[in-house]
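User: ok so my PI wants both of these folded by tonight, can you help

Assistant: No problem, let's get them done. Here's the first:
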Amino acid sequence: MRSYHVGAEGLAAHKGSCEAARGAEPTAESLASGVAWNLLSKLVALVLGAVLLSLLPRWLASAGFGHYSLVVSAVSFFALVADFGTGPSNARHVALYSVRSPRDLASVVLSGAVLNVAVSALVSLACFAFAPMLVRFLRGPDAMVATLRVGALLILATSLKEFIAATFQGLRRMDLLSLTNTVGNVARVGLSLALVIAGQGVIGAVWGWTIGYGLACVVGGYLLFRELRGLPARLDRAFLAETLHYALPLGLIGLAFFAYTQADVLLVGKFLGTEQAGFYSIPVQLATWLSFPAAALGMTIAPTIATRFESGLPVGDMFLKSTRYVLLLFLPVAATIMVLARPIVLAVYGEGFLPVVAVLRIYMPFLVLFSLSSVFSQVLNFAGKATFRVWVLCSAAVVKVGVGVLFIATLGIQGAAWITLSTYAVVVGAYWVTLSRLCRVPARSFVTLLLRILLAAGAMALLQGLLSGYAQGPIALLAVAAIGAGLFLGLAFAFKVITTAELAGLLGRFRMSSR
């Protein structure tokens, strides 16, 4: 595939011209290429994540998987603290400097990398030192101390990998971002499963993550060096200050975001026990992994929208079209899983995991909101609206965690899921109102679009509900899901949510970008 290329070679070829090096405006082909590369890596992560989520609960049993889930959630929290917004802040500055002053790109990246590594190393050391205290607080098993200390290395690897990936996003080198993430995901899943099979248990699964992400850092770092080779690189206080200034609100956003993806698992583990944490973590991880295609779209269009804003160009059509694609994909997926939740859990995990069913159904509307947010949040970040996101997301997160601390012990895992869904609905609503004004998208256009897709998804869900009694076993499940998907697609064309000409054009652009 071709990708929108930025780097020393491009600068030399165009004799240092900023406009020529970046291009005043990316073409539809280059955007399709970026989405294709990003989607490829996300689909690989989705498939591998599904394999891991299907096998680990069976192989580690409910208590072992709960132990594993608590460690992963704790590592996710510390990794956010370690990054504290330096990755996405650096991505935004890379995107903007590629227009303003391309020769400074290597210096911008170097300054951000030094900041990221320094903070990550300190956080990793703190996690290693205070692991026993954290395990006592979470009421985890004694064996969790050693596992969490392995997780301390994972914190450093995760933070650096995300920084490298974010830099490629800012450069619009989605092919290199895809390659870095794919190497990490393939290695972490393969090594985790291999070490568990070899009898290493939970600590083996965490070692697999650590080694896999470490390998991704090596590969991604080498690719980034090649991309920026030939450009002058210096550690600049001004670039450090710029990155840190915008990283602070993004870091707060990351911590609030953690409250919606992992904090519940820790709270459930503390108040309801390790086994319940394992049950609860399955829908949480599923919603996160299923939203990957939306993240691919958001990561691709956000830098483009930022540069269009910088140039005073309109972005409304691009933003509304992206929203439509997210709804077209995730509303039917969520509706299918809601209707077929019980046979899905029985087929994948067995009767011992039936408590997952109710939580899984509640988390499907959250999946739709989370997927929309994967686009909305990226656009807001690159448009310089991180401070707005801080107020919205942090306020909602404080309410969510506060209510969770007070009531999870009595409401159980279903109550935890309802708290997450209700508070995140407010967050996404606030994002939409702001972006619709910023991008000048008429509310009527969005409401009409949403109602049409909801009607098609509702008809699909009704048909699947009528056929759910036949969904016994993986093949029957897939058949019922496919029948419903066929109905949804037919209604989407009938309601003109998407047209054959548009679909053919999208496929044609993807084919052109792969040449």
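One down. Here's the second:
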Amino acid sequence: MDDPTAAIATVVAVGVVAQWVATKLKIPSILLLLGAGLAAGPGLDVIDPDALLGDLLFPVVSMGVALLLFEGGLGLHRSELGSWSGVLVRLLTVGVAITGVVAAIAAATVGGLSLETAVVFGAIMTVTGPTVIIPLLRQTRLRPRVARVLRWEGIAIGAVGATLAIVVLEAVVLAGEGPVVIAREVLLTAVVGSGIGLATAMALAWALGHRLVPDHIQNAVIIAAVLVAFALANHWREEGGLFAATVLGIALANQRRAPVRHVVEFQENLGVLLIGSIFVLLGARVEAQDLRANLVPALAVLAVLVFVARPLSVAASTWRSSLTRQERLYIAGVAPRGIVAASVSALFALKLEAAGVQGSTDLAALTFVVVAGTVVVYGLGAGPLSRRLRLKVPDPTGVALIGAPPWAVELGRLLQRVEVSVLVVSTDEEEIRQAQQADLLVYNGRLAHRDLAETVEAMGVRLALAVSHREELRAFGAERFVHLLGRANVYEMPRNAEERAQSHGGAGGHEVRELGVGLTSADVIAMVAAGATTELVSRVELETRGEGFFPLLTASNGRASVVAGPVDGSAEWVIGVRAAAGTVLREPVDAASDAQEGRPPTTVPPEPGDEPGYFSNELE
């Protein structure tokens, strides 16, 4: 593709679409990303990364990896470190050593690499990819302890393994330096990178805590700080930038001076673009002939890594730990490689070639096949293995009610009748008392505290409904649950007709989805005051008793869904609000457009001085 603009747009679009499709198919996104890169590069010759970016290719990839490590670091809280912290330390030391040695031996014996290149390959293979582990953990719901071990290892080992790899490369190129020099170089790189990352985090926390940075540019300032810290650390110590980015993320996540929750959400969105683009670019760089030449040796090396290196390293690292046998087996069965290994190997191949080291041209291709192979093996096997070892947590089906007015308490009670778990989130003493009397589980702690996240995870909450009549609880609660569950799983009932009108599209609309199509919070309050009730009816009964009934939720097989239009014919139960006889329907003048969009008319009792543009019809 000759047009650089079109080529860049293609890279971004292919990366995002591949992840979108992978999410729908519930498979690891890297599988489609690598395939898309191969198809766009050696397959169709649509993208040539070297011609597109030239000398900027590897700096761009390196900065992208740094931002991904920073994002991963933001998810590591020291409160998660429990009795298994020693396991993590051993995985980063003993486990790395075992993996590197076994991988180097395999690359030299069955992979066909020279001894020098095989040693570099072994160091590269110590890195389990955080860009693969984290999406994999999102798709495979595991017991918290196992998930935390894998997440901490995947993120922390990125900096450790990459630093080890660069030091090993320097030792191979210099050909004569001993283990003392290697240890010194690793220590210096870790100290310099970690120091710069920690200092940057302290400066950011101080500036954010003192409100020196306006809200609308905080994300930009933080990203700029990450890139500056990465560049400074790399300037003083090559690959020290990976340490700086990781430590910066961990330090920001564990300080209490300034909130960074909004940064986490932004970084997740940025991560989708980075992961997609980088994998497509790296996949497109691989030459087809190199892949064919190294396919069989790479598969042999892959078998050694999966069945020998990983089990040995995990067995040594978890010996006499508090982890159960099933947990140790699962950790031994998950170790995919990702962007860090692929990008570092491509860079190292060029440096080894420039130094005249034999076998350097095969390093990138061999690494690419092994990376793709580990993703296929672990990506497709992680889910079945978790079920076989009984470590998989059931998919969430629960509903969280943000606020608990009387009608919502009854809604929660009816949900429990159809085997849907309910969590009430409120700070109002009267609401809490009524919810508890209805045998509903109540969370009345701080919304910003990690206890809420742990409660939501333990309860298996899938949907959140913001129904509080108190604006501050509803708004902040919806924002908090957007972070916990994703925007698509949080619903809010508009306060009034004006807010409902604003919620339909445009930059000024609501950031969460609408609950109660055609209803507002003010409507429900008025309906309840006039004698409306919250009811549970069967789908068949709805057809005969639908007059004056406004469906909110459907439930089937212990799983609830929000009604966003006509009630789904496959629904087993329907929960909604039934207006009392004699209640007045107040309909908008544009009722025809409302009906076309599937919104029922709003139901309220008649009030003096109705708003202009509305008229009333009595219910029979």
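The CA atoms of residues 79 and 223 lie 25 Å apart. The two ends are 68 Å apart (CA to CA). Good luck tonight!
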